[in-house]
Amino acid sequence: MSQQQLNWQRAVIKVGSALIAPEGNGCKTEYLLALARFIIQSRKQGKEIVLVSSGSVAAGRNSIASSGQTSIAEKQAMAAVGQTRMMANWARLFDFPCAQILLTHDDLGDRQRFLNAKNTLRELLKNDVLPIINENDSVVTDELKFGDNDNLAALVTLVSDADTLIICTDVDGLYDSDPKANKNAKLLKQVEHISDEIMVLAGDSKSLVGTGGMQSKLRAARKACEQGIQTLIVNGRNSDVFTQLAEGANPGTLFNAHSSRQKAKKNWLKNGLKTKGSIKVDSGAYNALVERGASLLPAGVLAVEGRFEAGYAVQIEYHDKPVAVGLALYNAAEIRKLKGQKSTHIESILGYHNQDVVVHRDDLVLL
Ligand SMILES: Nc1ncnc2c1ncn2[C@@H]1O[C@H](COP(=O)(O)OP(=O)(O)O)[C@@H](O)[C@H]1O
Ligand SMILES: N[C@@H](CCC(=O)OP(=O)(O)O)C(=O)O
């Protein structure tokens, strides 16, 4: 076992169909109890968790007639039945509320919807609700698909601003070859860098009900690690895994983040999204951002330059010097109207009220 103590504050936990519906036709709680205990315990310690749960198709399979190969329409109908069952299965394990979010690729590609998903998650976590996310299987077509929930989970770490991704599956982690095909396969405890040599270790076999296989888990891990998010692949069928996770140990394969979260976020905000304008702030706002790591309130805004929509990256300037980049929660014209105003006046000025702040501290990095 690795000696490295795991440190995390907000994790996305991805649970594969193999754990929700191990026989491929209907939900079970057998493999979810230890994970649920871990979630409850972690939340009590003040940590935050977002679940990405597969299993809707497998959970609904026994209610939709299908002869031979299942058609897309049949699968989508299975997902429609199974999604509510899967949610009910989770909800009975917790005495706090669970919330369902169903996403398509299109949702996260659109700035406004990306921002809405971000804001919703933030509110849910603030209210101690457990968000449970799946792909909106009943409506997606191939072009709009994430493809698999490992990929979806990697994107959700970005939307939810998590620091850790934990992928729970039915094997102990990444082996040097498929453990189901080779009984001498060796488990890799830690991977510093997901190189092409590491990528080819994953075979293309899947569990009875899985979609992505190990290859998609490695692609997801690589995506997350590049964004500064450490990733673990663990065996969710083994209850001892969650005892170890709770102790800060690595019970599977740990993929180290390639850079710091802050550095990756800065790169994403500056280069990935490209800043579209700037917001000039007063000394009070400057001090709040720099010294207290606070969000930017409308009261501290002096001027706005450029044209941008909500969800775009903007530069924040003090005395004409760039001090931070962040995601704007309102568009340029709206922020012009809000400049110097109290947050309590947002509703009367704009006619609606989304957030109290113009840029949230979670979506802001200092330069
Ligand atoms: N190198 C490897 N190490 C571990 N598992 C592998 C490897 N290559 C292929 N696999 C297969 O990947 C499967 C897990 O993927 P998948 O069936 O999609 O699970 P899930 O339903 O949890 O997403 C394992 O059951 C295993 O057979
Ligand atoms: N969205 C689909 C699962 C897709 C998927 O990637 O499944 P899995 O490989 O079991 O994580 C469902 O809920 O059935």
Report on this model:
- The chain is α/β, with parallel strands linked by helices and 367 residues long.
- It has two domains: 10-258, Acetylglutamate kinase-like (Carbamate kinase, 3-Layer(aba) Sandwich), CATH 3.40.1160; 265-366, Archaeosine Trna-guanine Transglycosylase, Chain: A, domain 4.
- Helices cover 36% and strands 19% of the residues.
- It has 14 helices and 13 strands.
- The protein has helices at 17-20, 33-44, 56-60, 72-91, 105-109, 111-126, 149-159, 196-199, 213-226, 239-246, 261-272, 283-292, 332-338, 346-350, and strands spanning 10-15, 48-53, 98-103, 130-135, 164-169, 190-191, 230-235, 253-255, 277-281, 301-306, 313-318, 321-327, 364-366.
- The strands form two sheets. An eight-stranded mixed beta sheet has the order 3-4-2-1-5-7-8-6, sandwiched between helices. A five-stranded mixed beta sheet has the order 10-9-11-12-13, sandwiched between helices.
- A hairpin with a 2-residue loop joins strand 11 (313-318) and strand 12 (321-327).
- Helix 2 (33-44) packs parallel to helix 10 and helix 7 runs parallel beside helix 9.
- The longest helix has 20 residues, at 72-91.
- The two termini are 38 Å apart.
- The model has no long low-confidence stretch (mean pLDDT 93).
